[in-house]
């Protein structure tokens, strides 16, 4: 069984779009796992103590002569091979090789990458759903991204960009999913983005309801097709 590392919330539900990518994959392929929750400020210390590799190593700089190691989630531990893996794309590539029965719907067909620019729209709303320990850390670290402004001040109402991003994705589609009848990594990226919206804003939020109507209700059908793979174990 795998151990899947995720970030908790005060609402007792998974919310991070990065971790949802992998959770959808695990559920879709029925790979056994259990979730271990780690608060945001404890991610780096937990990863280093367990031997989980950094998700990214930035080039050397004046501040970090040996390069800066960034520790983020998701991460998984495979007890069968005593292997820790971090970063969603690396995790899915590992799982594609580790569980050959899943390769009928391999994660990374060529030409299926997608981008949905949601960051500016939703980031200011995340802090209020985090546990206190993570909320303070989130506000302090994300404020730096917005160059010293508060998260509310940094919020960019770029809803049109989200609509355009999904419309661009929709044009790639050949069915319910990006490549047809079976989901691939790009579909899990989109589904994770939707889970992010739904869990941060709530099912009744006007923007979430609006998304479901875009592209002639295409995304409502997409969400319905993946609902059964949203279990949090």
From TrEMBL:
This one is known as GST N-terminal domain-containing protein
Q: Which organism is it from?
A: Coprinellus micaceus (Glistening ink-cap mushroom)
> Residues in domain GST N-terminal?
6-103
Q: Which Pfam families match?
A: GST_C_7, GST_N_2
Q: Which InterPro entries match?
A: Glutathione_S-Trfase_N, GST_UstS-like_C, Thioredoxin-like_sf
Q: Kindly list the organism's lineage.
A: Eukaryota, Fungi, Dikarya, Basidiomycota, Agaricomycotina
């Amino acid at each position: 069984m795998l151990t899947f590392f995720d970030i908790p919330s005060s609402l007792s539900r998974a919310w991070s779009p990065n971790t949802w990518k992998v959770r959808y994959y695990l559920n879709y392929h029925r790979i056994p796992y259990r979730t271990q929750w780690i608060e945001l400020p404890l991610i780096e210390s937990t990863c280093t103590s367990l031997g989980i590799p950094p998700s990214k190593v930035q080039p050397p700089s004046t501040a970090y002569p040996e390069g800066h190691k960034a520790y983020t989630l998701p991460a998984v531990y495979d007890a069968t091979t005593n292997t820790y893996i971090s970063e969603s794309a690396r995790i899915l590539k590992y799982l594609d090789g580790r569980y050959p029965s899943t390769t009928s719907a391999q994660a990374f067909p060529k030409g299926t990458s997608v981008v949905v620019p949601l960051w500016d729209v939703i980031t200011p709303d995340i802090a209020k759903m985090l546990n206190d320990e993570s909320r303070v850390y989130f506000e302090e670290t994300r404020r730096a991204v917005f160059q010293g402004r508060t998260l509310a001040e940094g919020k960019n109402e770029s809803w049109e960009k989200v609509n355009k991003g999904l419309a661009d994705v929709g044009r790639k589609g050949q069915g319910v999913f990006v490549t047809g009848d079976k989901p691939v990594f790009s579909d899990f990226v989109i589904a994770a983005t939707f889970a992010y919206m739904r869990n941060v804003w709530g099912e009744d939020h006007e923007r979430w309801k609006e998304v479901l109507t875009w592209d002639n209700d295409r995304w409502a059908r997409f969400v319905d097709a993946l609902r059964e793979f949203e279990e949090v174990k």
